[in-house]
Amino acid sequence: MMNKHPEPAVEAAGLRVVRGGRTVLDDLAFAIPRGRITGLLGPSGCGKSTLMRALAGSQAHVTGTLTVLGRPAGHRDLRPRVGYVTQAPSVYADLTARQNLDYYAAVLGIHRRDRPAQVDRALHDVDLASHADALAGAMSGGQRGRVSLAVALLGEPELLVLDEPTVGLDPVLRRDLWRLFHRLADERGATVLVSSHVMDEAERCHRLLLLRDGRLLADDTPDALRRSTSSDTVEEAFLHLVDQADAADPRTPADTAAPTEATPR
Ligand SMILES: Nc1ncnc2c1ncn2[C@@H]1O[C@H](COP(=O)(O)OP(=O)(O)OP(=O)(O)O)[C@@H](O)[C@H]1O
Where is the composition biased (Low complexity) (predicted)? Predict the structure, then answer.
């Protein structure tokens, strides 16, 4: 695909985040290319959500450099250009899916004339067109999550930051969402950053950022990661890199933010 923007969608250097007095992201440096799907992977507690919050501009105590679409993360100009979906669906239970989307479209400043088409398209994208008039409060958790995702798609943002969007979804919905992510990247040129701790989802990404204990273990393509570690799967590659990092920097569990499990759940 021709990339109209040679500069990355996101660039981080010396990125550090402190939460509750503890360093939870430490000296991260990476770039996220435009128009591709980048997976942010790592065990529970490694700092994925914190990094996403920093990108969306909703995280306090961020130091270092974090540039998003050419602006400092959190810059007001980025609001319509970045779609962010948190782990907890943020929709109004007493509104229907369509009413939620209409409301957020207005908040985003989408012109009244353009709203119906935008809302229809977003509902269609997440396969909720047939539930447009159902109350969000009467929907399943997975459906509410998809309404949240539809909200993030309004206005066709250039960057989508999706925090574990497939968690709790059945295999068919998970597959459909991954197809949507690929469509957004391939056909609309969107940059998609998606977090997961399910390693099989890593294989569906163009690039991967592997995080552990707030540090970056790898920033590469799934193929290159498998090759460089002589592994058959990304999960095996991840475990190889964890062992390598432990051998080079043996920190005690008490010093780290990570759970004691070595295997991502
Ligand atoms: N409000 C908070 N105050 C202090 N520390 C926090 C807070 N929220 C999270 N943390 C800590 O920050 C670290 C990173 O948490 P984060 O939620 O970013 O991890 P994660 O990789 O997204 O985990 P999960 O996959 O379980 O969602 C963890 O050690 C966590 O305990």
Answer: 244-265
How many angstroms separate the alpha carbon of residue 46 from the centre of ligand 1?
A: 7
Q: CA separation (Å) from 103 to 83, 99, 178, 220?
A: 15, 6, 26, 39
pTM: 0.90
Q: How far is the CA of 163 from the centre of ligand 1 (A)?
A: 12
Q: How many CB atoms lie within 10 A of CB 74?
A: 18
Other C-beta atoms lying within 10 Å of the C-beta of residue 20: 6
Q: Which domains does the chain have, with CATH numbers?
A: 1-69+158-260 (3.40.50.300), 91-156 (no CATH)
Beta carbon of 46 within 6 Å of any ligand 1 atom: yes
**Which residue bears the tokens 């920093």?**
54
pLDDT in tens, the chain (265 residues): 445 567 999 999 999 999 999 999 999 999 999 999 999 999 889 999 999 999 999 999 999 999 999 999 999 999 889 999 998 888 999 999 999 999 999 998 999 999 999 999 999 999 999 999 999 999 998 899 999 999 999 999 999 999 999 888 888 989 999 999 999 999 999 999 999 988 889 999 999 999 999 999 999 999 999 999 999 999 999 999 988 888 887 654 544 444 333 333 3
Nearest-atom index, ligand 1, CA of 52 = 18
